[in-house]
């Protein structure tokens, strides 16, 4: 558990702000105690200071995880957001896409969101914006990046991509080993 | 949850679409239960009123009989006079006679009983009616309350009887005799009241007569009713007889011959035999075959069960010790069936009602798990894979056996506590804890297996648990890492005898060694868990120990061990169902508070076999390890044995325990001489010590030690004289001497280390020999203090000790001989290693 370097912090926050915009600062200033980002084996954990102190008593070799894993830095020093961050990202998301029940399963298997599966979309979503994907019953099921803005969506072909797949909750099963 | 008996057979439960999972069949009730209602009909037929009436009836009957006798006497006299006149009156007059009476009679008859005729008119039943031929009601008034009928019948009979014989005395003889018959019938029928109503039917001649006469007046439906009643009665009779026959037949179970046993038969035959043996064992005295002992039956049963359910004999033997045979078969049967799939709602993300609705929309057939849980749901059938629905992936629920809720419910975590789950993988219980804590406080989830911790992490993230630290330690080392938890949950690894339905390999793979390995690990884990807990916590200080095994070795015995070794006590688990833990099991006698633990069985609770115990820690002090002898030394012996890799088999263990219990008394007579010897020797010793105490102050410490060691050496020597096992004791002597030399060589500065050792050794010895000494720790401390105090005190104390030794040596020498023999060398080796 070490403090993130300046550089990596910047990369992390850039990535996060793609999805939740200015709400990033809400992750840091919380009413229920201070939270911080810590790095362990390139993985970034979001953890409260109080829990961190307890976790530090555990030998790093034996520590598997503490708090919530947000994602990991790749070897090319880019930050990849994991689906495990959904718990914190979803409430703060500013742009959302709802998919139809018929397209849920498609997305959970790792496919992109097509126009035919699009149920709803937040007004004036720009192009290439990070979004959180919801089911019609308002269950967050993953992240994506829009390939078209809301206006463009209206006139898109039924088979055209609306959002690129980034992460989905199907990964808990599909890639349980690599995720953690 | 739970099977639903089809009490209402008319209502048929519709099966939903989709593949049908294998379900437990409806419960089968034992024969006795089916038979019961019939007995009840017979035995419980009489109400209070009915009894009263019966009593009254009897009274009246008695009166009637008396009157009859008197009347008969009178009749005889009168008859002879009047017979001739009467014979002239023919049967054609009969009806007249019956309707009214001949003129002469009319007068005095009416005078006698005007009231009774009235009742007769109102209520026409049975014989009198047949004769009078007045409108018959008995058929149509089928549901006339029998009681009324009976009573009035009585009146009638009385009146009828009187009337009839009076008529008879006027009329023909035939009529008279007939009436008398009827009167007798009435008497008979009175004896068993419930039959009364149909009595006329039961007596053949009467009934037929009645029928013939009634035929004219009865409606067809009434006739049919009468017939039906007759038939029913007959059937009932036959059924009763048959049942008696069956009962008589049941006890015919011939013990199979050896040839039959050697030739393998079909599984069905074996199954039948199992059933038979179980019934025989249920009522052994009555049903046994002459010359066969219970032992033979149980052995045969054991073999049959092993073949039928494919268990190994070892496990089956243990199971037979846990359950009575009837229950055992139920347990084995239940262990074949898989339990219903249950899920736990993740209260961090959703509510049970919402989840149930969402799943029903996906075509899942479910029900709440029971009143005891607010988060459990049972899945009966599902059209979608229940472990891959979007709700599952979104962390709204987790697949978890119903029994896994129990330890967490027993733990009852509070918000803002620090809680440890020692064996957490795959994280079901730990996430349940987090959900109850509402993600506050801190949760440590530990598991010894690194691969399995990944599942914990995965589940935690899926379920949205954010207050958790997942780590990978051997649970036994955890107290070295972090302590001071408010609550600790230990779901210890076990043999899994409670979840045979899930993993049938348990049936054949487990043996004594596995069990021993398990419970040794469990004991260590439980002690570690207790050490991790903080007794001073304002809200907690609780430890919950649970296993999915039903063997007492892994449950009660482990808890019992912890009760002795740590400052903990058992508290109620807070689970309002489940059976109490064992206090006695075979030769073991556990602490009485083990009643507070809870056991769950597949056949009674329809969940996996499970054990839950809740402990409260009341002090952080760890008591000196050797507090109690019997259990501890046994355990130590076993531990060492397992460490050495030569675990003793069950028989060996039994032998050990027998050694401690059984043969103790046998060598007693030979030992009786020894204590006296010892006494003398010790007196000598005490004299010596006194002398030495007088000698000098400076050499005090050394001599003190010397004395002790001498004492031990002497004891050992005595034992050599007692026992033939020279080898062991030689070793002990050697070690003792070696220590002597060492300690003599030690300078005064280094005596501290010697001090620390010797009291311990002494403590051990004392504890073996002194049963009555309450607190060994104090003694050892005293010894340390003594070395720094004045000479006199030393000598006094020494004297006291010697006295104590003497006393206890007398009492215990015979008892402890064997134990000490086995245990001493081991301890000596340990001390040697330390030094």
Automatic annotation (TrEMBL), chain A:
<keyword id="KW-0694">RNA-binding</keyword>
<dbReference type="GO" id="GO:0003723">
    <property type="term" value="F:RNA binding"/>
</dbReference>
<dbReference type="InterPro" id="IPR015947">
    <property type="entry name" value="PUA-like_sf"/>
</dbReference>
<dbReference type="InterPro" id="IPR040598">
    <property type="entry name" value="NIP7_N"/>
</dbReference>
<dbReference type="InterPro" id="IPR036974">
    <property type="entry name" value="PUA_sf"/>
</dbReference>
<protein>
    <recommendedName>
        <fullName>60S ribosome subunit biogenesis protein NIP7 homolog</fullName>
    </recommendedName>
</protein>
<dbReference type="InterPro" id="IPR002478">
    <property type="entry name" value="PUA"/>
</dbReference>
<dbReference type="GO" id="GO:0005730">
    <property type="term" value="C:nucleolus"/>
</dbReference>
<comment type="subunit">
    <text>Interacts with pre-ribosome complex.</text>
</comment>
<keyword id="KW-0690">Ribosome biogenesis</keyword>
<dbReference type="Pfam" id="PF17833">
    <property type="entry name" value="pre-PUA_NIP7"/>
</dbReference>
<feature type="domain" description="PUA">
    <location>
        <begin position="95"/>
        <end position="174"/>
    </location>
</feature>
<dbReference type="GO" id="GO:0042255">
    <property type="term" value="P:ribosome assembly"/>
</dbReference>
<keyword id="KW-0539">Nucleus</keyword>
<dbReference type="InterPro" id="IPR005155">
    <property type="entry name" value="UPF0113_PUA"/>
</dbReference>
<dbReference type="Pfam" id="PF03657">
    <property type="entry name" value="UPF0113"/>
</dbReference>
<comment type="similarity">
    <text>Belongs to the NIP7 family.</text>
</comment>
<dbReference type="InterPro" id="IPR055359">
    <property type="entry name" value="Nip7_N_euk"/>
</dbReference>
<comment type="function">
    <text>Required for proper 34S pre-rRNA processing and 60S ribosome subunit assembly.</text>
</comment>
<dbReference type="InterPro" id="IPR016686">
    <property type="entry name" value="Ribosomal_synth_fac_NIP7"/>
</dbReference>
Automatic annotation (TrEMBL), chain B:
<feature type="active site" description="Nucleophile">
    <location>
        <position position="548"/>
    </location>
</feature>
<dbReference type="GO" id="GO:0070475">
    <property type="term" value="P:rRNA base methylation"/>
</dbReference>
<feature type="compositionally biased region" description="Basic residues">
    <location>
        <begin position="700"/>
        <end position="709"/>
    </location>
</feature>
<feature type="compositionally biased region" description="Basic residues">
    <location>
        <begin position="797"/>
        <end position="808"/>
    </location>
</feature>
<dbReference type="InterPro" id="IPR001678">
    <property type="entry name" value="MeTrfase_RsmB-F_NOP2_dom"/>
</dbReference>
<feature type="compositionally biased region" description="Basic and acidic residues">
    <location>
        <begin position="157"/>
        <end position="172"/>
    </location>
</feature>
<feature type="compositionally biased region" description="Basic and acidic residues">
    <location>
        <begin position="95"/>
        <end position="110"/>
    </location>
</feature>
<dbReference type="InterPro" id="IPR018314">
    <property type="entry name" value="RsmB/NOL1/NOP2-like_CS"/>
</dbReference>
<keyword id="KW-0175">Coiled coil</keyword>
<feature type="compositionally biased region" description="Polar residues">
    <location>
        <begin position="773"/>
        <end position="788"/>
    </location>
</feature>
<dbReference type="GO" id="GO:0005730">
    <property type="term" value="C:nucleolus"/>
</dbReference>
<dbReference type="GO" id="GO:0003723">
    <property type="term" value="F:RNA binding"/>
</dbReference>
<comment type="similarity">
    <text>Belongs to the class I-like SAM-binding methyltransferase superfamily. RsmB/NOP family.</text>
</comment>
<keyword id="KW-0694">RNA-binding</keyword>
<dbReference type="GO" id="GO:0000470">
    <property type="term" value="P:maturation of LSU-rRNA"/>
</dbReference>
<feature type="binding site">
    <location>
        <position position="447"/>
    </location>
    <ligand>
        <name>S-adenosyl-L-methionine</name>
    </ligand>
</feature>
<feature type="compositionally biased region" description="Acidic residues">
    <location>
        <begin position="173"/>
        <end position="191"/>
    </location>
</feature>
<dbReference type="InterPro" id="IPR049560">
    <property type="entry name" value="MeTrfase_RsmB-F_NOP2_cat"/>
</dbReference>
<protein>
    <submittedName>
        <fullName>Putative ribosomal RNA methyltransferase NOP2</fullName>
    </submittedName>
</protein>
<dbReference type="InterPro" id="IPR023273">
    <property type="entry name" value="RCMT_NOP2"/>
</dbReference>
<feature type="region of interest" description="Disordered">
    <location>
        <begin position="1"/>
        <end position="217"/>
    </location>
</feature>
<feature type="compositionally biased region" description="Polar residues">
    <location>
        <begin position="711"/>
        <end position="727"/>
    </location>
</feature>
């Amino acid at each position: 558990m070490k403090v993130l370097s300046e550089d990596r912090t910047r990369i992390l926050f850039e990535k996060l702000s793609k999805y939740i915009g200015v709400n990033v600062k809400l992750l840091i200033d919380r009413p229920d105690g201070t939270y911080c980002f810590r790095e362990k084996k390139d993985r970034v954990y979001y953890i409260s200071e109080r829990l961190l102190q307890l976790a530090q008593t555990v030998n790093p070799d034996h520590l598997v995880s503490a708090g919530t894993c947000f994602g990991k830095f790749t070897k090319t020093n880019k930050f990849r957001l994991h689906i495990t961050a959904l718990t914190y990202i979803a409430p703060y998301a500013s742009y959302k896409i709802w998919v139809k029940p018929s397209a849920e399963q498609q997305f959970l298997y790792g496919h992109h969101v097509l126009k035919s599966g699009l149920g709803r979309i937040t007004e004036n979503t720009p192009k290439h914006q990070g979004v959180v994907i919801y089911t019609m019953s308002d269950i967050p099921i993953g992240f994506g990046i829009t390939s078209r803005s809301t206006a463009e969506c209206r006139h898109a072909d039924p088979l055209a991509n609306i959002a690129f797949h980034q992460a989905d909750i199907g990964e808990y099963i599909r890639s349980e080993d690599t995720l953690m | 949850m739970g099977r639903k008996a089809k009490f209402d057979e008319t209502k048929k439960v519709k099966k939903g679409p989709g593949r049908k999972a294998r379900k437990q069949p409806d419960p089968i009730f034992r024969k006795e239960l089916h038979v019961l209602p019939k007995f009840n009909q017979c035995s419980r037929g009489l109400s209070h009123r009915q009894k009263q009436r019966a009593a009254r009836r009897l009274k009246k009957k008695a009166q009637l009989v008396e009157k009859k006798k008197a009347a008969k006497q009178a009749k005889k006299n009168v008859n002879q006079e009047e017979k001739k006149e009467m014979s002239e009156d023919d049967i054609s007059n009969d009806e007249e006679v019956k309707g009214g009476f001949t003129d002469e009679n009319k007068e005095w008859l009416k005078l006698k009983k005007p009231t009774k005729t009235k009742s007769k008119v109102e209520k026409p039943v049975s014989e009198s009616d047949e004769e009078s031929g007045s409108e018959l009601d008995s058929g149509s008034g089928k549901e006339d309350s029998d009681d009324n009928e009976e009573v009035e019948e009585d009146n009638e009979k009385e009146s009828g009887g009187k009337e009839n014989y009076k008529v008879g005395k006027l009329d023909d003889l035939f009529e008279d005799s007939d009436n008398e018959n009827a009167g007798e019938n009435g008497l008979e029928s009175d004896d068993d009241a419930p039959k009364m109503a149909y009595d006329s039917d039961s007596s053949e001649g009467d009934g037929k007569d009645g029928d013939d006469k009634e035929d004219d007046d009865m409606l067809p439906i009434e006739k049919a009713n009468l017939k039906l009643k007759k038939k029913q009665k007959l059937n009932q009779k036959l059924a009763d007889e048959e049942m008696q026959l069956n009962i008589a037949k049941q006890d015919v179970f011939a013990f199979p011959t050896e040839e039959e046993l050697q030739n393998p038969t079909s599984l069905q035959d074996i199954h039948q035999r199992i059933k038979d043996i179980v019934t025989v064992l249920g009522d052994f005295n009555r049903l046994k075959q002459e010359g066969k002992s219970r032992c033979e039956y149980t052995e045969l049963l054991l073999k049959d069960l092993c073949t039928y359910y494919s268990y190994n004999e070892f496990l089956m033997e243990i199971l037979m010790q846990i359950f009575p045979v009837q229950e055992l078969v139920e347990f084995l049967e239940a262990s074949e069936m898989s339990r219903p799939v249950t899920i736990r709602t993740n209260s961090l993300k959703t509510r049970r009602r919402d989840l149930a609705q969402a799943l029903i929309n996906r075509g899942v057939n479910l029900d709440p798990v029971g009143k005891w849980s607010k988060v459990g749901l049972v899945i009966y059938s599902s059209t979608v894979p229940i472990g891959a629905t979007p709700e599952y992936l979104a962390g709204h629920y987790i697949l978890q056996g119903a029994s896994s809720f129990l330890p967490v419910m027993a733990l009852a975590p509070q918000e803002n506590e620090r809680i440890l789950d020692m064996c957490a993988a795959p994280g079901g219980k730990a996430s349940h804890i987090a959900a109850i804590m509402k993600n506050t406080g801190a949760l440590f989830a530990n598991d010894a297996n690194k691969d399995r911790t990944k599942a914990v992490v995965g589940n935690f993230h899926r379920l949205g648990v954010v207050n958790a630290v997942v780590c990978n330690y051997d649970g036994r080392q955890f107290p070295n890492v972090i302590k001071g938890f408010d609550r600790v949950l230990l779901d210890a690894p076990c043999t899994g005898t409670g979840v045979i339905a899930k993993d049938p390999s348990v049936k054949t793979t487990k043996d004594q060694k596995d069990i021993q390995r398990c419970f040794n690990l469990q004991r260590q884990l439980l002690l570690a868990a207790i050490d991790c807990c903080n007794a001073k916590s304002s809200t907690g200080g609780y430890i919950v120990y649970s296993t999915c095994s039903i063997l007492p070795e892994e449950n009660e015995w482990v808890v019992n061990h912890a009760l002795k070794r740590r400052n903990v006590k058992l508290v109620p688990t807070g689970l309002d169902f489940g059976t109490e833990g064992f206090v006695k099991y075979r030769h073991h006698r556990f602490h009485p508070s083990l009643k507070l633990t809870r056991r769950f069985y597949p056949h009674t609770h329809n969940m996996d076999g499970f054990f839950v115990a809740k402990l409260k820690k009341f002090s952080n002090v760890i008591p000196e390890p050797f507090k109690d002898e019997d259990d501890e030394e046994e355990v130590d012996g076993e531990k060492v044995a397992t460490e050495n890799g030569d675990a003793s088999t069950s028989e060996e263990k039994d032998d050990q325990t027998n050694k401690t219990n059984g043969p103790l008394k046998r060598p007693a007579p030979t030992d009786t001489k020894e204590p006296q010897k010892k006494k003398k020797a010790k007196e000598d010793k005490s004299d010596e010590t006194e002398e030495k105490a007088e000698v000098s102050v400076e050499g005090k410490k050394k001599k003190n030690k010397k004395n002790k060691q001498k004492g031990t050496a002497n004891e050992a020597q005595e034992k050599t004289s007692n026992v033939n096992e020279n080898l062991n004791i030689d070793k002990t002597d050697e070690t003792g001497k070696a220590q002597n030399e060492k300690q003599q060589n030690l300078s005064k500065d280094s005596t501290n280390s010697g001090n620390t050792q010797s009291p311990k050794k002494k403590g051990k010895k004392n504890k073996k020999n002194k049963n009555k000494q309450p607190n060994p720790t104090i003694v050892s401390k005293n010894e340390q203090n003594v070395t720094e105090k004045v000479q006199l005190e030393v000598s006094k104390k020494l004297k006291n000790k010697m006295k104590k030794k003497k006393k206890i040596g007398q009492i215990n020498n015979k008892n402890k001989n064997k134990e000490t023999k086995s245990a001493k060398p081991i301890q000596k080796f340990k001390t040697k290693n330390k030094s």
